[in-house]
Amino acid sequence: MRTNQFNPVAPVNVYVALGSNLENPLNQILQAIQEIKKLPESALLACSKFYKSVPMETTDITAQADYVNAVVLIETQLDAPVLLHALQKIERDHGRVRGEQRWGPRTLDLDILLYGDQILNTDELTIPHIGISERDFVLIPLSDINSDLYIPGKGHLSDLLALCQSHQLEILEDSVPNV
């Protein structure tokens, strides 16, 4: 009798942030969600509302349009680096070019916010996401999905929300997603 030697990674819940402010941002986010649904060994479990937010850093030189932001929850058996590379491929397929300008305009930005309860810090990936605790355009969509969430090394989501500065977040009522 043959046995299966494949030993899959146990499924893990992963929160992924989505953002766009170029080339029809709402459409970029909607298409990215469809592509995330197709990731191997993964399933989309939930999606936050969609939000409009002002850019984090804007100067006369880097003036840019508002962003559309959301967060999705997936269950996956992909390990964190493999998932990161799959998300980066989706970004590239949407025309994302990684440049020198931090917080610059982009067609699509996909960030792994949380990978289960793991804490990871490599040259390529930091989990929880490095800016998770200061960004209302991440924390509020996270709260849409799981208001009781505990962020490893950072604290309870509700406490982080209470301390977070506002970037004039606005719900895009006509685009509440249907998972």
Radius of gyration: 16 Å
- The CATH architecture category equals 2-Layer Sandwich
How many beta-strand elements? 10
Bin the helical content. 10-25%
SSE topology:
Blueprint lengths: L11 E9 L4 H13 L4 E6 L3 E3 L13 E10 L3 H14 L15 E7 L4 E2 L4 E2 L8 H10 L4 E2 L3 E2 H7 L6 E2 L8
Explain the overall architecture:
The chain has 179 residues and is α+β, with helices and mostly antiparallel strands. The protein has one domain: Alpha-Beta Plaits (2-Layer Sandwich). It contains 4 helices and 10 strands, in the order βαβββαβββαββαβ. Strands 1, 2, 3, 4, 5 and 10 form a 6-stranded antiparallel beta sheet that branches. Strands 6-7 form a two-stranded antiparallel ribbon. The longest helix is centred in the middle third of the chain and has 14 residues, at 80-93. The N and C termini lie far apart (41 Å).
